From TrEMBL:
Gene3D superfamilies: DD-peptidase/beta-lactamase superfamily. This is CubicO group peptidase (Beta-lactamase class C family). SUPFAM superfamilies: beta-lactamase/transpeptidase-like (SSF56601). InterPro entries: AmpC-like (IPR050491), Beta-lactam-related (IPR001466), Beta-lactam/transpept-like (IPR012338). Residues 64-381 form the Beta-lactamase-related domain. Pfam families: Beta-lactamase (PF00144). It comes from Chitinophaga skermanii. The lineage of its organism: Bacteria, Pseudomonadati, Bacteroidota, Chitinophagia, Chitinophagales.
């Protein structure tokens, strides 16, 4: 676990919110430069409003108005510009019942964005020659075996298949477990669908390498591989290889959420505004959905890939970064743990997330050093389109259409 969490820091963040000093992380307590404040104002006071299910802008409104319209209790955002975190702010209530304000260090469930961070860990281990993207994963598995299937008989499955959802495996996603309810105690139990697991066993539904089939089950296989290969808890591996090196100080894959982190975690809410029973669900499917984090920490993750891609103090090798963000299978837009997208002629990588009571989205440019991360404690993510469009236009991302979050 790598999670800096004290009640003092949390309360200090609330004070900053109240006195209007919730300053961009990049500037600490210094005044925000006028140019940056102009960008912040665009989001806070002049958000593009879209007609439902269309790309038609019907007007402009404040962020507060749109949060109220969509019944979003808390929203946290980080904006990357010129390869650096330019500003980060949070709005609303992390806990509406107790009137606890959200701050930039409030932790949200990243949901499927966990898959991107998991993939970066794998790429780091590939650089260290401890794993191979191309060899059959059966060589790494002994405590659990890929299911025998006539559909996939005779075919190999590699880590690149699993990370790009081209392995042909089942189980799209996971609903998590209510706090206090029975839950599986091992990754193998979940893979086998053994009670009290609430998802079916992971099976082949198509042949490997024939197309894209989103599979959280396949990412869970990666979790099992890491645990078996290194004989360590998954969260320990991710701390050592990604979270600590990238200074993601307010992040953890530990499930259930550690006690020392709970006072700074957002409560999850339904579209109706009703809080989840127990405040949030528990996700033992850590690699697929288990990350708790902040937009600022995810900005560090995005910047690490951007720098590696452009060979600037790379966290991973440049060629490894190119492999990660390039579609693995022709005809898809899916790299290893990320989706490919573009704004005009500018290539981006992105991923979205949807856990019970939480939604998230990030995208990062591969060539211009721009990007954004948005996290909310709501099941309704329609506000994302309005924020991403506004930021893209304000920062001149040069694209007429918005990126649709992939989940």
């Amino acid at each position: 676990m790598y999670c800096v969490s004290t009640r003092f820091i949390h309360l200090l963040g609330i004070v900053y919110f109240i006195i209007g000093c919730q300053i961009a992380t990049a500037y600490g307590q210094k005044p925000v430069p006028k140019e940056v404040q102009t960008h912040i104002d665009a989001v806070e006071t002049n958000l593009a409003v879209f007609f439902p299910k269309t790309d038609s802008i019907t007007g402009y409104a404040s962020l507060a108005e749109r949060m109220a319209y969509y019944n979003v209790n808390a929203l946290s955002i980080a904006v990357i510009n010129n390869g650096k975190l330019e500003w980060a702010k949070a709005y609303g209530f992390a806990n509406a019942e107790d009137r606890i304000e959200a701050t930039p260090t409030t932790m949200f469930q990243a949901a499927s964005i966990s898959k991107s961070v998991n993939a970066l860990c794998v790429m780091k281990l590939v650089d260290e020659k401890k794993l191979s993207l191309t060899e059959d994963v059966r060589k790494y598995l002994s405590g659990w075996r890929l299911p025998i299937s006539d559909t996939a008989r005779g075919y190999e499955v590699n880590l690149a298949n699993l990370l790009s959802h081209t392995a042909g495996l089942s189980v799209h996603g996971f609903e998590g477990y209510e706090v206090g309810k029975p839950m599986p105690t091992s990754t193998v139990a979940i893979l086998n669908g053994k009670p009290p697991t609430n998802s079916p066993a992971v099976q082949f539904v198509t042949k490997p390498n024939v197309g894209f089939k989103y599979s959280g089950g396949g990412i869970l296989v990666v979790q099992e591989i890491l645990e078996e290969q290194f004989n360590l808890p998954y969260t320990t591996i991710l701390d050592k290889k990604v979270l600590i090196p990238l200074q993601m100080k307010h992040s953890t894959f530990t499930q259930p959420l550690p006690v020392e982190c709970r006072d700074k975690a957002a409560v999850g809410y339904r579209v109706t505004g009703k809080p989840l029973t127990g405040k949030w669900h528990i996700y033992p499917e850590q690699a697929a959905a288990g990350l708790w984090t902040t937009p600022s920490d995810l900005a560090n993750f995005i910047i690490a890939i951007q720098k590696s891609y452009n060979k600037k103090k790379g966290f991973i090798k440049q060629q490894t970064a190119h492999t990660m963000v390039t579609p693995y299978l022709a005809g898809t837009k899916v790299g290893l743990g990320v989706f490919e997208s573009a704004w005009g002629d500018t290539p981006f990588f992105n991923h979205g997330g949807a856990n019970e009571g939480f939604r998230s989205f990030y995208c990062g440019s591969l060539t211009t050093g721009k990007g954004i991360v948005i996290m909310i404690n709501s099941d309704n993510d329609r506000i994302f389109k309005e924020i991403v469009y506004t930021v893209a236009k304000d920062y001149n991302w040069k694209n007429e259409k918005t990126i649709q979050p992939n989940k």
